[in-house]
Design goal:
The chain has about 325 residues and is an alpha/beta fold. Helix content is about 35%, strand content about 25%. α4 links the parallel β4 (about 75-80) and β5. The radius of gyration is 19 Å and the shape is globular. The chain starts with a strand and ends with a strand. Bound molecules: oxa(dethia)-CoA (UT7). The site of oxa(dethia)-CoA has 20 residues, from α2, α6, α8 and β12.
């Protein structure tokens, strides 16, 4: 049995925030942002636009490519840390929007690694024979949890969604397409390096903690940076080892788009040439769980992924959580 990606989809909201816009909001410069992060612009939602709206649009595109109707889905998984509500899950809202009423639906909270957690879960259920078709989405509306007075974080984040339809291939043969291996890991001892301190059940929102700006993403960027490079390399290597594939056999590295320097550091350590690294950070910034599936969809729709290609996806984020998946296209 193989778990095969039949379709991909992506969606980013229309509204664009450029580095020039940030120069008017905080003390920063286009030069600082581009040289330190690689980001030139990011997309953000408009009033009334929700996470589930982004999910819905990305999902429709993935389902259309897969030629699968929503009623045929057995499971919907949404990786997100910016759900429409705490209750219900965003996946349940998306189920209703799609009319996918034969599916289970749940969210995965694994920050920037949320999509790869979802993909790994989908693969597990498919290989166990429990389900046949799973919609995996990574989607975020980070603009609603970004402190636009904090220059060290606000220039980094954007909104968007990416989706894949994964299907069981019972005739899966040695050498066929599919998700070949996955590796997931967490370190809950470093929570405070990247978190939102208030708004959960431990510290519900009060006027006082809202005024203290505790409802926004807080990040110790420099420490996260160093941990990210090490963890992403380790996850990538473990995933490749599981499948017995060498880095020289990789056609595309599709990394979480948090910082161009992190990506370059990972590629260099893994000895993967620059031309095999898919980059779109310049256009979207860091979209957390959405960044890997948006990049995968872009590369796919641009015809860059050929049958038989080995594609390595890797991500790192809050939790801390990280992971990688290897796909034969
Ligand atoms: O997606 C989840 C995982 N997240 C990540 O992987 C992000 C990881 N971290 C990073 O990408 C980088 O650490 C940042 C891009 C966030 C920051 O880059 P850095 O090279 O680590 O800069 P820094 O935090 O060490 O700050 C250097 C200087 C500081 O000034 P001083 O103290 O040296 O005078 C900051 O105050 O840059 C200053 N700075 C800024 N200057 C202009 C911080 N933000 C800005 C800004 N514009 N927007």
């Amino acid at each position: 049995m193989n778990a095969v990606i039949r379709g991909t989809g992506g969606y980013a909201p229309e509204k664009v925030l450029t580095n020039a816009d940030f120069e008017k909001m905080v003390e920063t410069s286009d030069e600082w942002i581009v040289s330190r992060t690689g980001i030139k612009e990011r997309r953000v939602v408009s009033n009334g636009e929700t996470n589930s709206d982004l999910c819905y649009k990305a999902a429709q595109r993935a389902l259309e490519m897969a030629n699968i109707s929503p009623e045929d889905l057995d499971m919907i998984i949404v990786g997100t840390v910016t759900p429409d509500y705490f209750l219900p899950s965003t996946a349940a809202v998306v189920q209703e929007k799609l009319g996918a009423f034969n599916s289970a639906a749940f969210d995965v909270a694994a920050a920037c690694a949320g999509f790869l957690h979802g993909l790994s879960i989908a693969r597990g259920f498919i290989l166990n024979g429990n389900v046949k078709r799973v919609l995996v989405i990574g989607s975020e509306v980070l603009s609603r949890i970004t402190d636009y007075t904090d220059r060290s974080t606000c220039v980094l984040f954007g909104d968007g969604a990416g989706a894949v339809v994964v299907e069981a291939d019972e005739n899966g043969v040695e050498g066929g397409s599919g998700v070949l291996s996955s590796y997931l890991k967490a370190d809950g001892s470093k929570t405070e390096l990247l978190w939102i301190p208030i708004g959960g059940s431990k510290d519900p929102i009060t006027q006082q903690n809202v005024d203290a700006r505790g409802r926004y993403i807080m990040m110790s960027g420099n420490e996260i940076y160093k941990l990210a490079v090490r963890a992403m390399c380790d996850a990538a290597q473990k995933t490749l080892d599981q499948a017995g594939i060498g880095t020289d056999e990789i056609s595309w590295l599709i990394p979480h788009q948090a910082n161009i320097r992190i990506i370059e550091g990972v590629a260099k350590r893994l000895k993967i040439q620059d031309e095999k690294v898919y980059l779109n950070i310049e256009k979207y910034g860091n979209t957390s769980a959405a960044s890997v599936p948006i990049a995968l969809d872009e590369a796919n729709r641009r015809g860059m992924l050929k049958k038989g290609d080995y594609i390595l996806m890797v991500a790192f984020g809050g939790g801390l959580t990280w992971g990688a998946s290897l796909v034969r296209w």
